[in-house]
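QA checklist item 7 of 12: single-chain prediction sanity check.
[x] sequence parsed
[x] length recorded as 164
[x] structure emitted
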Amino acid sequence: MFDRIVINRQGLTGEPIDLGFLAECIIFYRKVRIIADSETFRYLVRCCGPDELLELFSMGVLEIEFFDNLTGVGTVVTDVGPVHELVVIDSQNIRYPQVARQFFDELAGSSGKGSNKMFNRFQRVVERSRYTPVMLEQSHTDLLDNSYVGPAIKSCLSSLLPST
């Protein structure tokens, strides 16, 4: 058995996480950490079930780290033309308390029964994080490193382009 694995969103389109892959990770690793945004969180709770996820939390095999902000590319117009930079996108609407409260209210339906209880149970176990300027600086440094970017581009292109 391996010690740990961290899973992030597995694609830009479609389901955020392959549930079969998640199940394999839970079997083969002592601890699985999922880096989640609002869509990933909703998908996991809906597909796996809130009680089942909470059971995995209590067993110590699953962790969810929810990021309260996002990263993106921003464009700044300068004297020499546009410059593209990594930026942090922040909004109340993407933070865990707002996302989880709205989601559990929807899940509970018109009766609202159990919404507060479920919100409180998840509030205790979901770890919250934020992307920081230091993280962006480190990413920027990686983007300027030819020994990193060259092989990364080659790998991406080889997986996206048809082989001839």
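[x] summary fact logged: Residues 146-160 form the longest helix (15 residues).
[ ] second reviewer sign-off
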